[in-house]
Amino acid sequence: MTASHRVRAGTAEDRALRVVIAEDAALFREGLTRLLADRGHQVVAAVADGDALLAAVARHHPDVVVADIRMPPTHTDEGLRAAIEIRRDHPGTGVIVLSQYIETRYAARLLGGNAAGVGYLLKDRVADVAEFADALARVARGGTALDPEVVSHLVRASGHADGLAGLTARERDVLALMAEGRSNAGIAAALVVSAGAVEKHVASIFGKLGLPPSEADNRRVLAVLRYFGS
Amino acid sequence: MGITGPVRTVTASPLPGGGRSLAGRAAGGPAAGLAILHAAVRAPFTGRARREVLFCLSGLPFVLVNPVTVFQVTAVLLWLFWRPTPARPPNLSWRDVAAAGTVVGLVLLLLVATGAARGIGAACRRLAARLLGERIAAPPPRRPRPGLLGGLDARLRDAPGWRAVAYLLLKLPVALFGCYAVVLFWGVGLINLTYPFWWLTFRNHAPGVQLRPVPVFTPFGWFGQGTFHVATFPGTFGAFAAGAGMLLAAPWVTRAAVSADRWLMRGLLGPGRLAQRLRDLEHTRALAVDDSAALLRRVERNLHDGAQIRLATLAMDLGMAKEKLGDDGEVLDPAAVRELVTSAHQAAKDALVELRDLARGIHPPVLDNGLADALATLAAGSAIPVELTTSIPRRPTPAIETIAYFCAAELLANAVKHSDAGTIKADVAGRDGMLVLDMTDDGRGGADPVRGSGLSGLEQRVSTVDGRMDIVSPPGGPTRIIVRLPLRA
User: Is residue A132 located within the same domain as residue A183?
Assistant: First the structure.
């Protein structure tokens, strides 16, 4: 619990977000709406399919969208397609895609070479309310929130990527957590090391990956993308 | 009149497949007699009779112009007219050369015969499908082999091709008989019918003029001089009667020719028994594979949309409740926590119900005790009362039990949904090495596998184990469905 609290502390502004939800299962949609309202966010629309989602986004210009991948009519990847379209047409809107399974291909399509303002989480993660709320705020700010499952899948997939060959095992762990979207404090808590140690690792990773010094968030995103070999 | 005699015998043993509407009216003697008379008089005017005549005529060109007939005719001519020139062996006459050339031609003809016969067979199958509604599956194509010798070998061992050749050989007499039937019974019959008309038009001579009698042709007697002659106007009505009789008989004669042809086609132009069996097995295997894939997809979908969603919601509720409870100290909003826990509790119970239903849908555990127990459980849970009798002395294999169980479940569900029935009788018995599921409801009938995908799905599932399903469901009911399954798949 302490970890999530510290993570929360990092995003303490907790500004009220305007959210659009797209989820075809009414039960889960209502639960999600209640959860977000409970956290002080404003759910401006809760819809049940991809087309309605696009319409709602065009109308409300929300800060962030939470979309299920499998929705009517075909129950395949409607949510994902809508999410990609939103990322293209509304760069200011963060997109979190929820799913009951993790598909690496979906993650790659969703990221599409740009990990800013995007999240891909298992539905289970919503149960860790604080962490989910944190991911939501992060994505709304332009950060990343990738499910640990996604990350471990992608790690396996990109295990032999050349760019990562120079990293130590510990640095890879740090990078994986970074890919999930965690802050330095969050990474420190997860690895049970000091925040200073994490900072050292992060600087080393940036150096080894040849990322020029710039705004920290941007470099993190670049590192994550490098990590996925996109 | 002489009609009543034969009519009674027909009523006693109704025509095989001779029209269900007749059977319905065949309760009393005279009424049935009228019905059959009606059918007999109408027979020459039906579309079926017309199409059968067309079939007889259209088959003739194929029989006359094909390599097999050419071979036969040439061989016969050769045999009849060619004699080796006696003596002087080194010097061949032009006739010997021609004969040798013909023999070589015949051998070459034999080589293309199978291919040509296949082509003509295909045309005959298309005609039969078009005109008779007789659909015969095409035989497997000839397997091409590389090289000249390979090609020759493939041609000579082309069993369906040779069967097609045999068909053409046997079709010749059948087709000739068919044409005879059409020309004599239909053509001459029609001409006979018009005798009184022609007599009035052309033979209106002054009284006293002696006229040559006119011959009337019928199937009896030789063509040359006619069966009988008419010399007077009243006599032409004899010809008229003969024509009417011939026309009444005509559809049955053509049908006889057509039936013989159909029999030949089924036996010789189809894929052959083994190939047909292979094709059936391929088909049912595809069905079985599709069926199991569809089942898995359905299970996944049910899990995804049902229990998984409920559990995710439950976890979310508990997560929120946990947040509200905090790490320690006083709970700020106990009412909200209570509500969340109540909702989570409900979601957990719902998820349990869904998982149980889903598990039972995959395999009902009671089926492990035997089909009888499983069906009894099923019947007890039916919305329409079910009178169930079971006698299954030898236990079928698990796959058969599962199929029988799901058939029964689906049929019951169908009856509940569509039939409006008051009671359902279900009898499940092991008989002659088969498991027979016989289900009758007193509902409104009209069940049709072509319209409802449920029944056709069942039919497919049953056919994957060489079982069969028969449905009798006239509009107005009752509906009786019999499923026969082998005891082992």
Answer: no
B223 contact partners, CB below 8 Å, separation of at least 6: B217
B323 Cβ under 8 Å from any chain A Cβ:
yes
Give the pLDDT mean for A144-155. 79
Break chain B into its structural domains and give their ranges.
4-39, 46-271, 276-362, 367-486
Q: Scan for tokens 């990109």, then name that residue.
A: A158
Superfamily per CATH, domain B367-486: Histidine kinase-like ATPase, C-terminal domain (3.30.565.10)
Q: Which residue of B has its CA nearest to A24?
A: B305
Q: What is the DSSP string of B1-36?
A: -TTHHHHHHHHHSPPTT--HHHHHHTTSHHHHHHHH
| Residue A82 binned pLDDT confidence (cut-offs 50, 70, 90) | very high
Segments forming the whole domain that contains residue A47: 2-151
Token pair of B192 as six digits: 């006979």
Contacts of B308 in chain A (CB under 8 A): 100, 123
Number of domains in chain A: 2
pLDDT confidence tier of residue B23, bands split at 50, 70 and 90: very low
pTM recorded for the entire structure: 0.59
Same domain? For A125 and A142 the reply is yes
**pLDDT tens sequence across B314-371:** 999 999 999 899 888 888 889 999 999 999 999 999 999 999 989 888 888 889 889 9
Count CB pairs under 8 A between chains A and B.
Answer: 44
For residues B431 and B212, give the distance between their C-alpha atoms in angstroms, rounded to a whole number. Answer: 73
Cβ contacts (< 8 Å) between A77 and chain B: which residues?
A: none
The reply to whether residue A126 touches residue B319, judged by beta carbons under 8 angstroms, is: yes
Contact A28 B313 (CB under 8 A): yes
Averaged over B378-394, what is the pLDDT?
A: 91
